[in-house]
Fold this sequence. Notes:
The chain is α+β, with helices and mostly antiparallel strands. The chain has helices at residues 54-61, 76-88, 103-113, and strands at 2-6, 9-12, 15-18, 21-24, 29-32, 45-47, 67-69. The strands form three sheets. A three-stranded antiparallel beta sheet has the order 1-2-5, covered by helices on one side. Strands 3-4 form a two-stranded antiparallel ribbon. Strand 3 (15-18) and strand 4 form a beta hairpin. The radius of gyration is 16 Å and the shape is globular.
Amino acid sequence: MALHARKEEVYLGVYEIEDHIAKPKMSERVLDVNDKAFDLIGDWIGVGDGWILREKLEKSLNIEMRGIEHNIHLQPKALLSLGIASFKSGRFTDALSARPKYLREHIVSQDVRK
């Protein structure tokens, strides 16, 4: 999944479907599409508005995508299914300990360090 972040950067997540649930293959990250990121091996489908930068992303990831789906709209019901599956498998966080993960803050901290 690639969601447009800013200029030529995308929020990138790589997932594999297992038992009808998308499971992360690596940690989510912010990717500059002009940088050599890593090699994706296998047969992949790109999802999200970040794939408007398809040519640069494919070069960065050293892969030719099998297909691209730009118009994916997140549905709250899908998040509920993911939450239920995680809960049933014992992967949950106590509500008082839950903290959001903001990839945008990661970008800002990188910019400050430069």
